[in-house]
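Progress note, project year one: complex with glycine.
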Amino acid sequence: MTGERTEVVVIGGGAIGLSIAFELAGRGRRVTLLERGEPGAEASAVAAGMLAPTSESEGNAASLLNFQLDSLCRYPEFTAAVSELSGLGCGYRSEGTLWVARHRDDELELEHLAALQRERGLTSRMVTAREARRLEPYVVPRAVGGLLVDGDHQIDPRRLLPALALAVEHRGVDLRRRTRVSGVFPEAGGVRIAYDTPGESGELRADIAVIAAGVWSEDGIDTPAPPLGLRPVKGQLLRLRGEPIIQRVVRTPDVYLVPRSDGELIVGASEEEQGFDAQPTAGAVFDLLRDAWEVLPGIYDLHLDEISVGFRPAVRDHLPVIGPAGAPGVFLATGHYRNGILLAPATAYWLAEAIEGGETPPLLAQLQASRLAGAG
Ligand code: GLY
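Model obtained:
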């Protein structure tokens, strides 16, 4: 059986897979994207969409920070291209983040974070309680200070993902829903991809296959890639709604609150090692509401629209895996953990460079699957 033939098959229709398809189609490649469910329906639809490498720099390897900063720079152009092709907005905002110290312990933690950011050449500044409340008047009156990060931005994943799905189709990508890949097999002259859809099984042949299916990148897919040891890190977050009470992202060391222009307020997020348990829990909801109320008491009157649960794809060092899978024609782009939305444009751009240039770009050097030898 020869099957259909295309140039590139991307497996996975989340933020990463769609962005890769968008980039490669933009470079003139014929791309087919296979998504097991609906595009953008899993982790990408749950993500808060903070584009915040400075705020999230603590504990991150320098290789990740440089990659995050590169991706943040790509965002305006990326979303402009997606919006132009799709005719849809992506909810891009650049108001920054205000960290709030609720008490002296928080303040010490923020001073430590600010020092770390300075050491890494990142810009932030401590603010007084009065300035914090001038910036965000609904912040709790007993706040003792804050840390302002003007360089953080945000995107609304529930606007970005539908726009991206439409934009890839406008670029000619053959986007196939409810198509579950069972195997990726290198063979002479390319790669054979076996898939199942409701009611039929099929095969596609391509020059290149990119496995970008988040935490499902190793799930039921026979691939030549080494075991990555991908695991789901469960995140629960809340979607509140009402009159906007903050302009920028407000955080404490325990919680983040992300405002949308339509009155939605995201409160996130738990981090749990619970496998694929998709049930919301009373404990996580309680913790999120308490932590959010402590910094922004006005949330009390908002409506609770949704409790969202998603699975961050993580490998043991919490860095993404982007590059060759160890067999000709097969590439990986997964393991983005807390950074899938932020890293989508850089992942797409640099993976496309690796595919076209045949070499690993320096920014991807620390993100190769080979570092995980023996995982799984
Ligand atoms: N990027 C924030 C989170 O994963 O909760």
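Residues 48, 50, 235, 268-269, 312, 338 surround glycine (CB under 6 Å).
The domain at 97-152+231-314 is CATH 3.30.9.10 (D-Amino Acid Oxidase; Chain A, domain 2).
No further modelling is planned for this target in the current period.
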